[in-house]
Amino acid sequence: MTAETSQTLDRGLRVLKLLADTDHGLTVTELSTKLGVNRTVVYRLLATLEQHALVRRDLGGRARVGLGVLRLGRQVHPLVREAALPALRSLAEDIGATAHLTLVDGTEALAVAVVEPTWTDYHVAYRAGFRHPLDRGAAGRAILSARQSPSADPGYTLTHGELEAGASGAAAPLVGVTGVEGSVGVVMLAESVPERVGPRVVEAAREVAEALR
User: Fold this and answer.
1) What distance in Å separates the CA atoms of residue 168 and residue 185, rounded to the nearest whole number?
2) With 80 as the cut, is the pLDDT of residue 13 above it?
3) Per the count of CB atoms within 10 A, which of 4, 15, 44, 180 is most buried?
4) 80: number of CA atoms within 13 Å, CB side?
5) Domain IclR-ED: where (predicted)?
6) DSSP secondary-structure letter at 60?
7) Has residue 173 been placed in a domain?
8) pLDDT tier at 3, thresholds 50, 70, 90
9) End residue of a domain, out of 44, 65, 86
């Protein structure tokens, strides 16, 4: 019993390490091959890890590291926020709009860091902890675009009025951060996003990704 329990734990940890080493997730078949076990064992391992939010599966069935891995370390979110804040501050001040770092949490987008500009007369109130579906709003849509084209330059995503009437958003996904899916973006009270904002958001996303590596 002890040997089997240790073997199961070992396999579960190996699953997490394998998923952490890929940006695109792995299928059950790929995990089965890499672990040298049958698919039934992999299904059980993934189901257990999913219950603890350590693994999630996307709509295509590919398994990825879940945000629960971040929760294992109580200081991880503060460290992520701290790493992202310089780039977010610069973005917010440069654009004059509220800047944010958003991570995937299950099927939702979760804002984990928000910086508001200091010099504007008004701006969108956006708070850390705000959640919304991944398929609504620039932050979530940018993440989904990176999933759909993982090998391509994802660029940036623009939206208007999807989360708040009269507000427009621009976001670019984090690229090359193992085990973390997220995006950096801005939200502003405007009918459309100025042309220079998209490329500036992409630049900020690259800065944050470098800080998190």
Assistant:
1) 11
2) yes
3) 15
4) 26
5) 68-213
6) T
7) yes
8) low
9) 65
